[in-house]
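Technical note accompanying the year-one report. For the benefit of new consortium partners, we illustrate the data format agreed upon in the data management plan: each record pairs a sequence with a structure-token string. No post-processing was applied to the example shown here.
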Amino acid sequence: MSDDRIRNSERKKTIWENIVLHKFSKPLVPIFLLVASLFVSYLIATQGIVAGILILMMLIGVPLLYAVVAYPKFGIIIFIIASFFINYQFIISLTPPDTPIGLVMDVLTYLLILGFFVKQKAEKNWSYFNDPISYFILAWLGYNMLEVINPAASSVLAWVYTVRTIAFLMLLYFVFVFQIRSKAYIRLLFKLLLVLELIAGIAAFIQENIGFFPFENKWLNADPLRISLLFIYGHMRKFGIFSDPVVFAYNMVLAALLCLCLLFANIKKGNKFILVVLMCFYLMVMLYSGTRAAFVLIPAALGLMAILKFNKNVLIFVVGAGLFLAFLIKVPTSNPSLVRFQTAFNPSHDASFNVRAENQRRIKPYILSHPMGGGLGSVGVWGQRFSPNSYLAKFPPDSGYVRVAVEMGWIGLLLFCAFNFVVLQRGIYYYYIIKDPELKTYCMAMVIIIFALDIGNYPQQAFVQYPTNILLYLAMAIINVTHRLDKKNNTPQPAITG
């Protein structure tokens, strides 16, 4: 028997003796378990299934919350999984009406930040954040905080509710940078993301080819306006496990781009085949969403890839993909998904695009006359809740950039655009100086994903909903981490003398 098997056998024996035999052999343990089971049974019998669910949440939740703080890498995985399923209608249908399920993400965010400070207190190493991306995140965070004194803001409460999410999500960038410390963990995160996106894609595939589940039909029929927004060209737009078709479509594009970039890594042919199949599947189900903005992201991302990976094979692939795209745009079809895809490349004939252009023209004088905008939360849900009679509460921002300009003024828009430019600039710079081929591939993938989100933030609000907002800061962090790991691995070690 090998030494490893002997050690594993001894470890199992120790666990059995110390915990099972020694602890559970005490008479108080079975008495406590008996009393606890009777108490739980009584609660469920008198209070119903809700009491049972709450007890189960406590039994699972308390150890889970501790693990998120004590084991941050595990916490990041739990956080990413939660961000994918937090708006899934099946999860929401299991909770009582008006349950603030979004607080789950807030709690996980606070715990991850707490775990970061606990570990940072022990290590006291701030060198991880000595880069322009970190500085601009702090500058953007500071400007969001400064918005509390915006004289044009009609509601401080709207600022509180908005900044509560924005500020803490930005801080997660520092958590990711600090806790991601190896290529193995990056690979694990990529595998996790591809699996979660696959689940979302399968859910949309079922919705398209089999039909909606009863809980999904209940949600769709609860609001007639929702049906009118999702039923277009005789086809119901699909959303998978997400809150709306836009989030679903963007996630499918990001997953497909990640698969495409990973094909350049030094991996087995079998794994490359799996990536190609996944990429095709993501792009196919993306069409079910009917989100035209997502269709434009693919050629834009391919263009940047052709620039970064300037070689014969990549150029041939990009040209071939461009010809295939041109064929899809021009081919006559009656397929509703393909028809909507084709209209994405002819926006001047699209009524919704013209309405958005008119809204932007109408709001332009307001933006120019308000350098700090109308305040965080002045448009959208919080604007309608806290200042329903204001001018901005009735304005549909549509574009993420327009929303920044309206809420934070042209000063905020300039800072936001500079922030996005610096992220891409550093990512491209790191890509060219990184020597490790694997890290170089990971850096390129994150740059292309962020570039696609930057493009997608113009026709839609790409940065505001789970899980896309999490993936954005995760991608920024991985850009930083790949450079740090490559620099560490290629730093000459001092010679040992004596």
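Partners are asked to follow this layout when depositing records. Confidence is low (pLDDT under 50) at residues 493-498.
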